[in-house]
TrEMBL record:
UniProt cross-references to InterPro entries, sorted A to Z: ACT-like_dom_sf, ACT_dom, CBS_dom, CBS_dom_sf, Diverse_CBS-Domain
Signal peptide span: none
Keyword set, alphabetical order: CBS domain
Species, as recorded: Lucifera butyrica
PANTHER family: CBS DOMAIN-CONTAINING PROTEIN, CBS DOMAIN-CONTAINING PROTEIN CBSX3, MITOCHONDRIAL
Protein name from the UniProt record: Uncharacterized protein
């Protein structure tokens, strides 16, 4: 799954001379939390709702509403925007996008095309939706968590049991768990299971203990 399939294309943008008040209105009206800043077609910065909150007067201020509006109308985005923008290309994978957000502790990335022009925005919400779809959660399958060891052929052996029982697998993912000196994995499979007891018996007998089973969706 790639970024260009999950991003919001043609995002709302602003210029460096956009006022803080106008940027606030754009975010509020479009229900978004970040705005790429464009100058003559080039990406020069980014502003987030957090940035705008930080420069907004405190509710405890003694300024009048007229004075507040005047200050926000005079302040421009170029004075508060972040000039170092972390981007990702439209042809990158969503895994790369997720890792970039995680490493940089940010909630969204500006997506650029091959010429470095803004093509879209991808956010943590987009990645969350991708996770839900990749895991097949809306389809209403049975989720089986299996304890496996780190050895060659594990996936082949486990899925072979599902094949022998005529069970169609919708999605599969594994993640590593530390367990003393031996590396252990939990294998999570979502499938159309009609008889969980038989499946559990077969997996346990093959040396793959079933840790958890639940119907999701």
């Amino acid at each position: 799954m790639f970024v260009d399939k999950r991003m919001t294309p043609n995002p709302v943008t602003i210029t460096p001379t956009t006022t803080v008040a106008d940027a606030m209105d754009l975010m509020r009206n479009n229900k978004i939390r970040r705005l790429p800043v464009i100058d003559h077609g080039n990406l020069v910065g980014i502003i987030t709702d957090r940035d705008l909150r930080e420069v907004s007067p405190s509710p405890a201020t003694t300024l009048s509403i007229f004075e507040l509006n005047y200050l926000l109308a005079k302040m421009q985005i170029k004075d508060i925007m972040k000039k170092h923008v972390i981007t990702i290309t439209a042809d990158a994978t969503i895994e790369e996008a997720a890792l970039s957000m995680y490493n940089n502790r940010i909630g969204g990335l500006v997506v650029v095309d091959g010429n470095g022009k803004v093509a879209g925005v991808i956010t943590e919400t987009d990645l969350f939706k991708s996770f839900v779809d990749v895991m097949g959660l809306p389809e209403g399958k049975t989720r089986i968590t299996i304890d496996v060891s780190d050895k060659i052929g594990v996936i082949h052996e486990v899925t072979g049991i599902f094949k022998d029982l005529g069970i169609n697998i919708g999605s599969l993912v594994s993640y590593r768990l530390p367990n003393g000196t031996e590396t252990k994995y939990e294998l999570v499979i979502r499938a159309d299971v009609s008889d969980v007891d038989i499946l559990t018996q077969k997996l346990n007998a093959a040396g793959y203990p079933v840790l958890h089973i639940v119907q999701i969706g």
